[in-house]
Design a protein that fits this description.
- This protein has a four-stranded antiparallel sheet with strand order 3-4-6-7, with helices on one face. Strands 1-2-5 form a three-stranded antiparallel sheet.
- Helix 1 packs antiparallel against helix 2.
- The protein has 254 residues and is an alpha+beta fold.
- The N and C termini lie far apart (57 Å).
């Protein structure tokens, strides 16, 4: 419209100043819109991520308290990664029930827990019904499925080490200290919460952690301290935090 006014002003001899002013204001407005919109989108994304992290942290705290309450009722011993009587598999996957099933009575889900048959696979005809129930504490914020990202490590020396006898880690006998040991973590991939499908950390690299698109992941330590960690964390520090008996002390700002 400014250009149109400028062309007419040239023929008519009036309104040229107004047309030029309109062109300048339009250009300035356009230039301001781009960075303002970009900054606004960044702020919105950061707020949404922060809100999601808060919900994930609250979920983790609830699950963490549940695992500790389980231990309090079982001589201070956490549930094994592979829970139930069907058996276990050392690579972190299998037909067994997950430690999350053991925690159900301690996160106000006793009615769901009582439906499971511990001597059967997690996806047996009898267990399929309770395994399909969405558990809010296990789910992604706003999600309503039977999937979860909250998974434990089953590597040698980890809290859910499949080679441990008598169940999971004894909280009173954690060589590195519970504050230096990961209880469970937010993984990138979702799995059915009832399934024994946990994470390995044997090599130099780790499985993907944290929600896709986020540059952080949430972790619950053995002392129930829930913290947000950047995905750029040193793998050596992360591996030290996975093991309960490596003799490492985790940096405060890792």
């Amino acid at each position: 419209f400014g250009f149109l006014g400028l062309s007419k002003a040239g023929r008519l001899g009036t309104g040229k100043g107004m047309a030029v002013a309109g062109l300048i204001l339009g250009a300035v407005g356009t230039l301001l819109t781009i960075p303002v919109g970009y900054v606004a989108s960044l702020i919105y994304g950061q707020v949404a991520t922060a809100k999601t992290n808060v919900v994930a942290s609250n979920n983790m705290k609830q699950i963490g308290f549940g695992t500790h309450n389980f231990a309090s009722n079982n001589n201070d011993v956490l549930p094994p990664g592979s829970f139930g009587q069907f058996g276990r598999k050392g690579d972190g996957t299998g037909k067994s029930l997950s430690w999350r099933v053991a925690v159900l009575p301690f996160i106000e889900q006793d009615a769901v827990y009582r439906q499971f048959r511990l001597a059967e696979p997690w996806d047996s005809p009898a267990n399929a019904k309770p395994a399909a129930v969405p558990i809010k504490a296990f789910a992604d914020p706003g999600d309503a499925t039977n999937q979860t990202r909250y998974r434990g490590f089953v590597s040698p020396g980890a809290v859910f080490d499949p080679n441990q006898s008598g169940g999971g880690l004894n909280l009173g006998k954690c060589p590195d200290g519970t504050g230096n040991t990961i209880l469970f973590v937010e993984a990138a991939d979702q799995v059915p919460w009832a399934q024994y499908n946990e994470l390995r950390a044997d090599g130099a690299s780790f499985p993907p952690l944290g929600r896709p698109g986020s540059d952080t992941f949430v972790v619950c330590m053995g002392d129930l301290n829930v913290r947000t960690v950047r995905k750029t964390v040193d793998p050596k520090v992360l591996k030290a935090a996975v093991t309960s008996n490596g003799g490492e002390t985790i940096p405060f700002d890792w």
